[in-house]
Amino acid sequence: MSVYTGEFGLGPTIEVDMIDMTKEVARITADSGIVNGTATVFVSGSTGAITTVEYEPGLLKDIPDALERLMPKGMTYDHHLRWHDGNGHSHVRASLLGPSLTVPVREGRPLLGTWQQIVFIELDNKRRERTIHVTVMGE
Q1: Which of 5, 116, 111 is nearest to 55 (CA)?
Q2: Model's pTM, two decimal places?
Q3: How far is it between the farthest Cα atoms of the chain?
Q4: Which domain holds residue 73?
């Protein structure tokens, strides 16, 4: 089994930015030389998330709206009461969505559905520069 690592930067990002990273992940997967295996995509930081979505204007609005309904900024969060940074909702959202995604690799490419893209969602209430790490494992 072989392991290959790559990374790329994003930013600056602002709260609820959704960034399509599919091409960057596919480039790293191709550069790895691994034909069949998995690619794990991970964001460093506790207020960002990685997932898949159909990257289209309706969902670019629907997802932030749903996050606000489920985990509103205006609620009282103990994290904010402790640190006074106003981003308790950001940490809760990121914890539920998750910082990573593992995608099968087949014939040197991420195995994704026709309308499925790999996206980063910025959840912090402050501008951030992000580093995305990709680890490809397989043969």
Answers
A1: 116
A2: 0.95
A3: 50
A4: 2-138
SS3 of 69, please? helix
* Number of domain units in the chain: 1
How confident is the prediction along the chain (139 residues), in pLDDT tens digits per residue?
Answer: 999 999 999 989 999 999 999 999 999 999 999 999 999 999 999 999 999 999 999 999 999 999 999 999 999 999 988 999 999 999 999 999 999 999 999 999 999 999 999 999 999 999 999 999 999 999 9
Q: Residue 106: how many CB atoms within 10 A of its CB?
A: 12
CA 27 to each of CA 39, 89, 103: distance values in angstroms, whole numbers, following the listed order: 12, 33, 14
Distance, in Å, from the CA atom of 47 to the CA atom of 45, rounded to the nearest integer, reads 6
Q: Residue 135 forms beta bridges with which residues?
A: 5, 40
C-alpha span between 105 and 111 (Å, rounded): 6
Is the preceding omega at residue 110 within 30 degrees of 0, hence cis?
no
CATH number for 83? 2.60.120.460
How far is CA 66 from each of CA 19, 21, 69, 71, rounded to the nearest angstrom? 17, 22, 5, 8
